[in-house]
Amino acid sequence: MTYRFYVSDDVDSEWEMPQRATTFSAGFDLRAYIVDADFIEVAPGKTVVIRTGVSIAMPSTSFGMIVSRSGLAIREGLIVLNAPGIIDADYNYEMCIILHNTSSAPRRILHKDRIAQIIFMANDAPLDEGIRSARTAGFGSTGKQ
Questions:
Q1: Which residues of the chain have pLDDT under 50?
Q2: Which CATH superfamily is domain 4-122 in?
Q3: How much is the pLDDT for 2?
Q4: Domain range list for the chain
Q5: What's the pTM?
Q6: Are 63 and 139 in contact (CB under 8 A)?
């Protein structure tokens, strides 16, 4: 399958695209895109939405799963709250990460920190030709009237 990452319109064209850490890594690391502050602080028990600066194009027969990075989870207590967050093949917007602090201490996210990963999977669910709605946004936007 072919996947292609794109830099968001308001992001520097030199922004680093998601990459695998090793040859056999299943996931592509996603980085925090923070430009209007030195960092984002996540208080204990709190949740933030963090930009990645990238969107994805993928075959219609696949989807992406946003999952936590194990090192960040075990060392910092930062997890992807809705893991796995699903990125459907027709989602053409910037990917954002819902990050939750499970620890008892505030945690700081810096610009370019690796905060999550995306793993691609085959979607072998049959297409439903009767569906007429088009995607208009993300984060729970489908199914709204």
A1: none
A2: Deoxyuridine triphosphatase (dUTPase) (2.70.40.10)
A3: 82
A4: 4-122
A5: 0.85
A6: no
86-108 pLDDT, tens digit per residue, is 999 999 899 999 999 999 999 99
CA–CA distance, 50 with 115 (Å, rounded to integer): 9
Contact in structure between 78 and 100 (CB atoms under 8 Å)? yes
Residue 93: its pLDDT value, please? 94
> Cβ(83)–Cβ(100) under 8 Å?
no
